[in-house]
């Protein structure tokens, strides 16, 4: 026989230990005769090499042409938090919940791989791998590096976590993948080839084209697809497809994508984990229960059945499961035998493999593949079991993740701007980056983890962001605002409960509140800002020293209650017991990648502009009934009308076009099923599954005496409540083209023992013909058709839940001329259940577990310091626009980018006079004559290290799709040098999306043959809308440059880059 690890380079791949065969034939003569293969028997030659007690299995097989090849892919699926926290899973603590310890998985796999060079293993979750790796000795690290080099250990997927695909934003998906990929590159010099999203509950277009093809992956595998879809795919042999996820990038960003045959486990008889109750291979005929023939037969039977569902003669078996291989020997020893005896049998060929080897074999087969567009949402595993609840589950955690996403990007920019010496032991963004990467996990931001794990995640986010806020304290004077070094800038993380001690300080004469407003976008932005204050008459001075208009608006009633609850519960020290009385509102004009500073002080008689007090109109419904009238908000480019009798929104009018659209807004709740229904009696609504008891959404009416209108020159607001536990503020800022709705939902009452899933609905008379559009991870919009799927004839048993889709940017519908659009501030579920109508699910409180593993009802509570608990209250914001399609499309993209990357605030109270002089009240990192085109956004600007060399990772995105906007769905040109006014670019390297390889050195994309396409490879050349490669040495003036004065660094224009619609480019820049 061959030596271990020595591949047979001749063509008889199936040759196995002949001496063993002879021995075996003696015992199994009758059975082996069924085997089709005639294997030579050279007993004497090999006799000495085989003895009982020193049994050697031949595991060296490669793929064999002309046979069914079964690629055995040893793997473990390690959730970075679910029933236990990430650290508990790593260490193996809290085993009473679940026996799982990833440290032993990696320990034992590495030992098992050293035993036999043919054995292979893939490892996925870098959060665990990094924990393990940094505690290994240099000797062990060398061994592992060797295993990686030999291809025995392969990193697959390679992100910090296996991100969710519904509740994640593409910017965060890219970030968490980059964190894993760069670490792998630095430690091992390799770049993962294969996407491995085997557990997420539905699959997104952005995953396929952006986090797949554009990342440089050659393929992407997953396990979960709708049960009806899967049925058809098995029949049609369309389990594996070429997936074009982007209309804009087309075939240039297509990828081979495969649904696994048997979830991500082997058929249960071949699960070899330590706790498996299956009979293991018993191949010693002297012992009882010898079972080799039965197991080989069973294996061959499974394989032959599976082969009916897949193209080519290559099949993949995922040999592993959740947290499997804690004792790797049971798996590998059994697989050694499996491979040995199956190949001896000869009907099919089994081999140790990885997804990469499998993919290369598929590619070599030169088969044609069906084309797939769109995505794999929503996911149902049975008729009444749509996994569409988790689009909204733990809405507050989802909101926290999204809020910190924008905060992290802004913090990284500031970290880069203030320089590297900060990194030497000082506070930095690393911890928040890791926490955010962890939260992208499919049991993280998805909301499908146990409560104690959700708490652990939230704590990690809080600790990470608290450290980041210290950066502001260390910002050197050259950059920031004041000469006094003992005055620190403070961030207010609790603005969501209107808690900000610094801004709430009573300001006597002689003291000023300094507010620094930072803009992380590459455009100048003018936006209304607000924060809580206590003083009534204030004057706001802008960065140029001008007194500017401001307005006071009272806090909504719900704000006081929440603030009290959280201040009580969390021992937040309040300087005095006074509560803030107002939100101070004013317009901030902030330069790109920069800040501006405002000084706020008590207005004196000489003040030119004093904060405008509000005019309120409190009306009870009864009062209105006596004098029916319409309440109108008219401050913006859109105007809202509310019914005088019901208090409900009735109409939206576009002041520019003069066109009015009937628009009702309402709240209602679905009754989450307790599972005791006639059909499928065990399916309750829970953390994963949305299953309303009926299709009825029970309405909440605007309650009596509930509506208050506040007017002023800058903003108009309607405060209204629909129930003691549900209220909202609708506001329109001056000249705004949208309405902003701030909702407060909770504590959802459960004293009637009914679980509730709370929804807001917007109803218009637009004839949308069942069609609506939802975003894919905050990027492309996909068309949805109610009660329909693109890939099969849908049978809908759940008319509500089966039409829900995940939103991260928003949702819209349209008729011939007009779009109704809603943008969201976090991941939520949404749908259009009737024509002209959109709905968002905002919060869920449920009383039963839905049987998908988490083992808890989604019933979040919060407790005060006396231990009194109540249901969690969720606050959030959504934005409504109705307008002509072109305007609406622009608004969705541009305003959506502002929602994603909001202005960031820092506060300080300074004494007036010498100490408080603001040194540089305004700053922009960019060339003062430059801003990015409106269709380009900065996604990432981050200082990174390659072998101790500091570089800047810059990611730019064209945020428009093809055919979306007449004026902005175009290629855009960016001058990289103009982004950095004070530094001269020394070198720019365009790199892959996860910044782990040079673009120029990336593997060439595989050219797949698509079923029905004219000729092989043809389709991949028709559509290559990527922007030109970097234009170098072609000095020219960019039209965006308004004014290039002498000596202006703008004149250097050799770093121009072009971004086609929906294109993202990543650069590593050295200065
Ligand atoms: Zn999982």
Question: What does it look like?
Answer:
This protein is an alpha+beta fold. Helices cover 23% and strands 27% of the residues. It has 20 helices and 51 strands. The protein has a 10-stranded antiparallel sheet. Strands 14, 16, 17, 20, 43 and 44 form a 6-stranded antiparallel sheet that branches. Strands 27-26-32-39-38-35 form a 6-stranded antiparallel sheet. The longest helix is centred in the middle third of the chain and has 24 residues, at 395-418. The radius of gyration is 31 Å and the shape is globular. It starts with 17 loop residues before the first helix and ends with a strand. 52% of the residues are buried. The protein binds zinc ion. Zinc ion binds next to loops. Residues 385-461 form the Glycoside hydrolase family 38 central domain. It is an enzyme of class 3 (hydrolase). Keywords: Disulfide bond, Glycoprotein, Glycosidase, Hydrolase, Membrane, Metal-binding, Transmembrane, Transmembrane helix, Zinc. The chain crosses the membrane at residues 12-32.
Question: What's the structural blueprint in terms of helices and strands?
Answer:
Elements (H helix, E strand, L loop, with lengths): L17 H15 L10 H4 L22 E9 L8 H6 L10 H14 L5 E3 L2 H8 L4 H12 L3 E3 L14 H19 L5 E4 L7 H9 L5 E4 L4 H10 L3 E5 L9 E6 L32 H16 L6 E9 L5 H18 L3 E4 L2 H10 L3 E2 L1 E3 L6 E3 L2 E2 L8 H24 L11 H10 L11 H24 L26 H4 L6 E9 L5 E9 L4 E4 L5 E2 L1 E5 L2 H14 L11 E9 L3 E9 L12 E5 L1 H6 L4 E3 L4 E5 L6 E6 L5 E3 L1 E9 L25 E3 L6 E5 L3 E9 L2 E8 L5 E7 L9 E9 L7 E5 L5 E5 L19 E3 L2 E5 L3 E7 L3 E4 L5 E9 L15 E3 L5 E3 L2 E11 H16 L3 E8 L10 E3 L11 E11 L2 E10 L13 E4 L11 E5 L17 E2 L8 H4 L33 E4 L4 E7 L1
Parallel strand pairs: 1-8, 1-9, 2-3, 4-5, 5-7, 6-11, 10-49
Antiparallel strand pairs: 6-7, 12-13, 14-20, 14-43, 15-19, 16-17, 16-20, 18-19, 20-44, 21-28, 22-23, 23-24, 24-25, 26-27, 26-32, 28-29, 29-30, 30-31, 31-42, 32-39, 33-34, 33-36, 35-38, 36-37, 37-42, 38-39, 40-41, 45-46, 46-51, 47-50, 48-51
Helix pairs in contact: 7-8, 7-14, 10-11, 13-14, 13-15, 14-15
The structure holds zinc ion (ZN).
């Amino acid at each position: 026989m061959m030596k271990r690890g020595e591949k047979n380079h001749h063509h008889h791949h199936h040759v196995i230990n002949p001496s063993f065969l002879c021995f075996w034939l003696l015992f199994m003569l009758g059975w082996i005769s069924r085997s089709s293969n005639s294997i030579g028997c050279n007993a004497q030659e090999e006799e000495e090499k085989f003895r009982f007690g020193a049994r050697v299995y031949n595991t060296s097989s490669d793929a064999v042409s002309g046979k069914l090849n079964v690629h055995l892919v040893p793997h473990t699926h390690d959730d970075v938090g679910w029933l236990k926290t990430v650290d508990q899973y790593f260490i193996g603590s809290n085993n009473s919940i679940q026996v799982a310890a990833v440290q032993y998985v990696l320990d034992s796999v590495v030992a098992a791989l050293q035993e036999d060079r043919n054995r292979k293993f893939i490892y996925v979750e870098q959060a665990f791998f990094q924990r393990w790796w940094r505690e290994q000795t240099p000797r062990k690290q060398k061994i592992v590096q060797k295993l990686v080099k030999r291809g025995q250990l392969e990193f697959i997927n390679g992100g910090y976590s296996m991100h969710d695909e519904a509740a994640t934003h593409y910017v965060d998906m890219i970030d968490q993948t980059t964190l894993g990929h760069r670490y792998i590159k630095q430690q091992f010099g390799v770049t993962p080839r294969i996407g491995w999203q085997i557990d997420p509950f539905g699959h997104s277009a952005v995953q396929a084209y952006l986090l797949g093809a554009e990342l440089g992956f050659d393929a992407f595998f997953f396990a979960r697809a709708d049960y009806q879809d899967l049925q058809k795919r098995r029949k049609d042999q369309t389990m594996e497809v070429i997936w074009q996820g982007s209309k804009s990038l087309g075939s240039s960003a297509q990828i081979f994508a495969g649904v696994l045959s048997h979830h991500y486990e082997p058929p249960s008889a071949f699960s070899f984990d330590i706790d498996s109750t299956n009979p293991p291979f018993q191949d010693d005929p002297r012992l009882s229960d010898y079972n080799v023939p039965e197991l080989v037969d069973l294996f061959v039977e499974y394989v032959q059945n599976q082969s009916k569902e897949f193209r080519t003669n290559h099949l993949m078996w995922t040999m592993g499961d959740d947290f499997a291989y804690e004792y790797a020997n049971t798996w590998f020893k059994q697989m050694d035998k499996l491979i040995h005896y199956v190949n001896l049998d000869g009907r099919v060929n089994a081999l140790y493999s990885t997804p990469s080897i499998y993919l290369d074999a598929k590619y070599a087969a030169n088969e044609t593949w069906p084309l797939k567009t769109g995505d794999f949402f929503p996911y149902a595993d049975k008729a009444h079991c749509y996994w569409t609840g988790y689009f909204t589950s733990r809405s507050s955690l989802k909101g926290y993740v999204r809020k910190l996403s924008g905060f992290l990007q802004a913090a990284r920019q500031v970290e880069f701007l203030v320089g590297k010496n900060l990194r030497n032991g000082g506070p930095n963004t690393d911890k928040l980056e890791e926490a955010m990467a962890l939260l992208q996990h499919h049991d993280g931001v998805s909301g499908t983890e146990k409560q104690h794990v959700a708490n652990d995640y939230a704590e990690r986010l809080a600790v990470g962001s608290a450290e980041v806020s210290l950066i502001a304290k260390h910002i050197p004077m050259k950059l920031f605002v004041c000469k006094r070094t003992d005055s620190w800038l403070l961030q207010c993380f609790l603005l969501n409960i209107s808690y900000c001690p610094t801004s709430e300080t009573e300001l006597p004469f002689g003291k000023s509140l300094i507010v620094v407003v930072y803009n992380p976008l590459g455009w100048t932005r003018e936006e209304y800002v607000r924060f809580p204050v206590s003083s009534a008459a204030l004057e706001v001075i802008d960065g140029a020293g001008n007194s500017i208009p401001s307005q006071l608006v009272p806090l909504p009633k719900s704000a006081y209650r929440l603030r009290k609850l959280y201040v009580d519960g969390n021992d937040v020290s309040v300087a005095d017991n006074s509560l803030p009385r107002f939100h101070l509102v004013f317009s901030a004009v902030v330069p790109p990648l920069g800040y501006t500073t405002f000084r706020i002080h008590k207005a004196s008689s000489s003040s030119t502009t004093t904060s405008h007090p509000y005019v309120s109109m409190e009306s009870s419904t009864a009062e209105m009934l006596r004098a029916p009238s319409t309440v109108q908000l008219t401050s913006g480019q859109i105007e809202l009308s509310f019914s005088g009798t019901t208090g409900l929104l009735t109409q939206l009018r576009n002041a520019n076009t003069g066109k009015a659209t009937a628009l009702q807004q309402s709240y209602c709740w679905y009754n989450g099923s307790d599972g005791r229904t006639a059909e499928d009696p065990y399916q309750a609504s829970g953390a994963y599954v949305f299953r309303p008891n009926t299709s009825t959404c029970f309405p909440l009416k605007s309650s009596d005496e509930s509506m208050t209108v506040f007017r002023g020159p800058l903003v108009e607001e309607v405060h209204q409540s629909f129930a003691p536990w549900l209220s909202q503020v609708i506001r329109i800022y001056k000249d705004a083209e949208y309405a902003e709705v701030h909702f407060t939902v909770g504590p959802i009452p459960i004293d009637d023992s009914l679980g509730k899933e709370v929804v807001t609905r917007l109803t218009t008379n637009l004839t949308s013909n069942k069609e609506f559009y939802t975003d894919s991870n905050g990027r492309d919009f996909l068309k949805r058709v109610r009660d329909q799927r693109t890939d099969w004839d849908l049978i809908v048993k759940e008319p509500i839940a089966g039409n829900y889709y995940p939103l991260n940017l928003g949702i819209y519908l349209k008729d011939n001329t007009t779009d109704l659009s809603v943008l969201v501030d976090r991941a939520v579920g949404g749908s259009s259940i009737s024509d002209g109508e959109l709905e968002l699910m905002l919060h869920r409180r449920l009383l039963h577990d839905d049987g998908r593993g988490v083992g808890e009802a989604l019933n979040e509570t919060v407790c005060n310091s006396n231990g009194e608990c109540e249901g969690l209250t969720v606050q959030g914001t959504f934005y409504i626009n109705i307008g002509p399609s072109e305007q609406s499309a622009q608004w969705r993209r541009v305003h959506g980018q502002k929602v994603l990357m909001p202005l960031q605030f820092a506060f300080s109270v300074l004494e007036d006079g010498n100490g408080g002089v603001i040194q540089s009240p305004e700053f922009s990192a960019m060339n003062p004559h430059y801003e990015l085109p409106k269709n380009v956004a900065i996604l990432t600007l981050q200082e990174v290290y390659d072998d101790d060399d500091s570089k800047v990772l810059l990611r730019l995105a064209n945020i428009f799709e093809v055919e979306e906007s007449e004026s902005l769905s175009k290629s855009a040109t960016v001058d990289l040098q103009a982004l950095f006014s004070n530094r001269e670019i020394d070198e720019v390297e365009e790199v892959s999306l996860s910044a782990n390889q040079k673009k120029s050195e990336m593997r060439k994309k595989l050219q797949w043959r698509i079923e029905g396409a004219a000729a092989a490879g043809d389709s991949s050349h028709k559509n290559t809308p990527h922007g030109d490669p970097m234009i170098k040495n072609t000095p020219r003036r960019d039209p965006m440059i308004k004014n290039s004065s002498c000596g202006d660094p703008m004149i250097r224009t050799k770093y121009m880059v072009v971004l086609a619609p929906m294109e993202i480019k990543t650069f590593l820049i050295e200065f």
